[in-house]
């Protein structure tokens, strides 16, 4: 949409669990979870917090909640009800979802415990992402940098979510969007305008990239 054209088409997806060629759809790097992880995590589900499974093919759910539908709409992922553990596609991440107040209580109780075995991050107030320990936007970006031979000085990382913080730590130049939280902003070298005010374009102009 931005009209940016080049021959480098790798994309870091699902919080770093996947690096994929956008043209060929070839998966270049993956850190998938297993059905056994789903069974282990399913035990944490309760009446207020439901589990969902994000694979390379579908967004699987146990409860068709407002939180899940909002995420599915944003990602454009097709939905499937969880009926067993035979998931189609690699499991990129498993989410716990619910109302913000319920999820906050859930995080107080279980984040430390879950973090022993998984990479755990909350990017929006209604969702807690559970991924392989090898997954993060930082690790995904480092794979892309190694793949193309980029140094940390040659990459500009721009983001507005908690899952972007790890990415900021592996490059020299990082940018927080104006709509990012204060926690995200304090990890970035630069702060630009919000998404609504074309912050991405503004920082590229300021740094004379375009």
Strand-helix topology:
Blueprint: E1 10-13, E2 18-21, E3 27-30, H1 35-42, E4 50-55, E5 59-61, H2 66-75, E6 79-81, E7 91-97, H3 100-114, E8 119-124, E9 127-131, H4 137-148, E10 156-159, H5 165-168, E11 173-176, H6 182-185, E12 190-191, H7 199-206
Parallel strand pairs: 5-6, 10-11, 11-12
Antiparallel strand pairs: 1-2, 2-3, 4-5, 4-7, 7-9, 8-9
Provide an overview of this structure:
- It is a single chain.
- This protein is an alpha/beta fold.
- The protein is 29% helix and 25% strand.
Q: Strand content of the residues, in percent?
A: 15-25%
* Amount of helix: 25-40%
Q: Number of helical runs?
A: 7
Structural class: alpha/beta
How many E strands? 12
Biggest β-sheet: strands ordered side by side in the sheet: 6-5-4-7-9-8
Distance between the termini: 15 Å
| Regions with little confidence, pLDDT below 50 for 5+ residues | none
Q: How confident is the prediction overall: mean pLDDT? A: 94
Largest sheet properties? 6 strands, mixed
Note the main attributes of this structure.
single chain; 210 residues; alpha/beta; 6-stranded mixed beta sheet; 3-stranded antiparallel beta sheet; 7 helices
In short:
The chain is 29% helix and 25% strand.
